[in-house]
């Protein structure tokens, strides 16, 4: 037993202190004029990232791919897709980032490959070494092996005429799932991971990684569930063993890991993190499920309203649940989600105030913050006209499934859902300036730029002091300068208040208080907030925020941080 003495300080890591910026390469910046964002385009913008102050770039897949799912269908793990550039250009980008002390995290997509991957091509021809690389199942071509459904709509099995068998694909039919039960598959993945580590990357974002283990016998799922089979393929029986193997491969390198693990509760997460399996952090999705309807994301009756007290409960469960047991990844959006200001704020008259409130939230919670490209200038959702102009196979598959199942008669009935959920909202090109195509490309962009680019763009945002961009920059800097915002313990106040989200972060004798009026109406702050002899306003998104906040009226989306 220890007696007295100094309390142990926080368990530090560079990736806990980092702010991550996510780049969706296709839509970030196009240097060669073909309308598709590319590696040279990103390299042109490294000073931009440096000015913003981020520490890590997570680069969505740039591997050779037929691009059925915009790169999440990898054809060759060790090659760069010509659309994005060359390996030499990737190395130039890595060095340009490293020269600015920005680390580079790559996407690791190993639940599935593209159906054009050499492994699948050889597997479907039953070449000895590769025959068991995927989940093959014999049976009648009209009768899939079980009732599992794919995330992108329709059955999770397709029949392959070449091999005369069914294969499993939890995503698109062009994304067959690798068979992780096969040790040769795991060795091949390990070799590939080592190959990238030797290229001096700084970590991996692990795509859909809690789907790796499928139960033997492929049991049917409960047909009355939202995604049939989910209880079998999420966090499957051998997942922990597979994750341990990956962590072991990484163990000789100073890298970060962030595992995409939707459908995972806090206790399970704690087992996978830190002292458990040893992953760094994970993307859970509970806070992104509050607006799904009773029948799931694509419930024809539409999304639900997000209820702030419920949102606080979910966030709090993770903030306190992982305290001393793991580490959070803090995010509200990414390339699979609607734009955060449209979903959690107001993309109309209060766009600036709500976008800066969201910045305050992201950058003052416990956990590593992730900023998705364009959120730092408050980019908004697009307005879609049915499926016209939709590129995302997830959206198209989901709407087709609603029609196939007779839940709607025509695409028009899904218009509100497409406009709420489509992943394409996040994939419109980055808005750099008010030049043609928002300065994203000199050519024809692969996806149209949002019409609002003349009002919302980087040039404009950087040009004035009270912009969303400047606010992000200040908050990133604040977080870097104050350990309390990284390592302080989270405590919630006013849990049931419908509009005010207030919490403290405490580290030894220091305390920070964050007060957010998450509403489009003004609200008087009533009820218990922590008292302090003196309270200093550190930052806020209005220029005359009350100090202390007790009893003050907070204006729409007013957000403030105090030292308390
Ligand atoms: C999650 C990725 O974020 C998403 O974009 C992709 O479609 C699926 N995993 C499949 O790889």
Structure explained in plain terms:
The chain is α/β, with parallel strands linked by helices. The model is unreliable at 1-6 (pLDDT under 50). The strands form five sheets. It has an eight-stranded parallel sheet. The protein has a five-stranded antiparallel sheet with strand order 14-15-16-20-18. Strands 6-8-7 form a three-stranded antiparallel sheet, with no helix packed on it. The chain is 26% helix and 15% strand. It contains 16 helices and 20 strands. 1-deoxynojirimycin binds at residues 69, 72, 109, 171, 207-208, 260, 335-336.
- Report the mean per-residue pLDDT as an integer: 96
The distinct bound ligands, ions and cofactors come out as:
1-deoxynojirimycin
> Which regions contain 5 or more consecutive residues with pLDDT less than 50?
1-6
Could you estimate the helical fraction of the residues in percent? Answer: 25-40%
CA gyration radius, whole angstroms? 24 Å
| Percentage of residues in strands | 15-25%
Could you give a short account of the major beta sheet? 8 strands, parallel
| Gap from first CA to last CA | 33 Å
Widest sheet, order of strands = 11-10-9-5-2-1-13-12
Quaternary organisation: single chain
Helix/strand/pairing class, anyone?
alpha/beta
Indicate the overall shape. globular
- Please count the beta strands (DSSP E, at least 2 residues each): 20
Number of helices: 16
């Amino acid at each position: 037993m220890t007696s007295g003495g100094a309390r142990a300080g926080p368990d530090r890591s560079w990736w806990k202190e980092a702010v991550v910026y996510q780049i969706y390469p296709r839509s970030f910046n196009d240097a060669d004029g073909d309308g598709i964002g590319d590696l040279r385009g990103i390299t042109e913008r490294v000073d931009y990232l440096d000015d913003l102050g981020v520490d890590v770039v997570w680069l969505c897949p740039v591997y050779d791919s037929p691009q059925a799912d915009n790169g999440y269908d990898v054809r060759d793990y060790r090659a760069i897709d010509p659309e994005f550039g060359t390996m030499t250009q990737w190395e130039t980008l890595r060095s340009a980032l490293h020269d600015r002390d920005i680390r580079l995290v790559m996407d690791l997509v190993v639940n599935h490959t593209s159906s054009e991957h050499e492994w699948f091509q050889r597997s479907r021809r039953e070449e000895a070494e590769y025959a068991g690389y995927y989940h093959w199942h014999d049976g009648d071509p009209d009768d899939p092996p079980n009732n599992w459904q794919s995330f992108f709509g329709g059955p999770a099995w397709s029949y392959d005429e070449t091999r005369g068998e069914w294969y499993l694909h939890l995503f698109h039919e062009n994304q067959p799932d690798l068979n992780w039960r096969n040790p040769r598959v795991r060795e091949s993945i390990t070799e590939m991971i080592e190959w990238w580590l030797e290229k001096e990357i700084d970590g991996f974002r692990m795509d859909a990684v809690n789907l790796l283990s499928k139960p033997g016998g492929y049991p049917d799922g409960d047909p009355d569930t939202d995604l049939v089979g989910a209880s079998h393929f999420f966090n499957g029986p051998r997942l922990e063993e597979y994750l341990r193997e990956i962590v072991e491969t990484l163990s000789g390198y100073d890298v970060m890991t962030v595992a995409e693990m939707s459908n995972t509760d806090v206790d399970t997460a704690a087992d996978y993190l830190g002292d458990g399996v040893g992953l760094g952090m994970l993307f859970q999705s509970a806070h992104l499920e509050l607006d799904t309807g009773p029948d799931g994301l694509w419930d024809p009756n539409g999304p639900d309203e997000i209820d702030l007290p419920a949102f606080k409960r979910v966030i709090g469960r993770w903030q306190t649940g992982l305290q001393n047991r793991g580490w959070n990844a803090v995010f509200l959006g990414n390339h699979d989600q609607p734009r955060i200001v449209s979903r959690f704020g107001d993309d109309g008259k209060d766009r600036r105030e709500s976008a800066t409130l969201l910045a305050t939230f992201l950058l003052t919670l416990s956990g590593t913050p992730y900023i998705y490209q364009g959120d730092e200038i408050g980019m908004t959702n697009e307005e879609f006209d049915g499926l016209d102009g939709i590129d995302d196979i997830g959206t198209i598959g989901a709407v087709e499934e609603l029609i196939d199942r007779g839940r709607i008669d025509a695409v028009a009935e899904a218009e509100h859902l497409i406009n709420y959920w489509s992943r394409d909202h996040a994939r419109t090109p980055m808005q750099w300036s008010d030049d043609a195509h928002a300065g994203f490309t000199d050519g024809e962009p692969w996806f149209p730029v949002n019409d609002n680019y003349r009002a919302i763009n980087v040039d404009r945002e950087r040009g004035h002091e009270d912009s969303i961009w400047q606010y992000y920059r200040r908050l990133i800097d604040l977080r870097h300068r104050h350990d309390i915002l990284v390592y302080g313990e989270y405590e919630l106040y006013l849990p049931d208040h419908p509009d005010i989200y207030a919490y403290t972060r405490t580290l030894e004798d220091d305390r920070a208080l964050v007060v957010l009026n998450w509403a489009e109406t003004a609200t008087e702050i009533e009820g218990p907030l922590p008292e302090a002899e003196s309270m200093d306003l550190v930052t806020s998104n209005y220029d005359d925020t009350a100090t202390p906040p007790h009893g003050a009226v907070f204006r729409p989306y007013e957000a403030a941080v105090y030292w308390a």
